[in-house]
Amino acid sequence: MVHLGMVTLVVRDYDEAIAFYRDVLGFVLLEDTRIDDAKRWVVVAPPGARETAVLLARAANGRQRDRVGDQTGGRVGWFLSTDDFERDHARLQAAGVVFEEAPREEAYGTVAVFRDLYGNRWDLIEPRDGEAR
């Protein structure tokens, strides 16, 4: 079997990114290993995630710093699936996450767009079939 193991998210600072993804979004810090004085291997994932995790990679040069917060040209680039939209939407709002819109119903499920601490756009989505994907 083949699966997508990790995706990279370029961040300004390791510790501020960990604080947001762990303390605000509720992700689990899976690994934080120092590679050298400037580089760490930092991996987070939603609780219970079995496959895909997020590698938080600190921008190392000007070109990478220019991409922090705009890695997908303004499109939604990440999809946080839930089995209980109302619960997780309320939890994220209480933690300070700002949603761009009110929740809406689509053919595929309930969804609302939010931004992470850098401005990257995410969907919080409960698929119509009720099962997080």
Automatic annotation (TrEMBL):
InterPro entries: Glyas_Bleomycin-R_OHBP_Dase, Glyas_Fos-R_dOase_dom, VOC_core. Residues 3-127 form the VOC domain. Pfam families: Glyoxalase. This is VOC family protein.
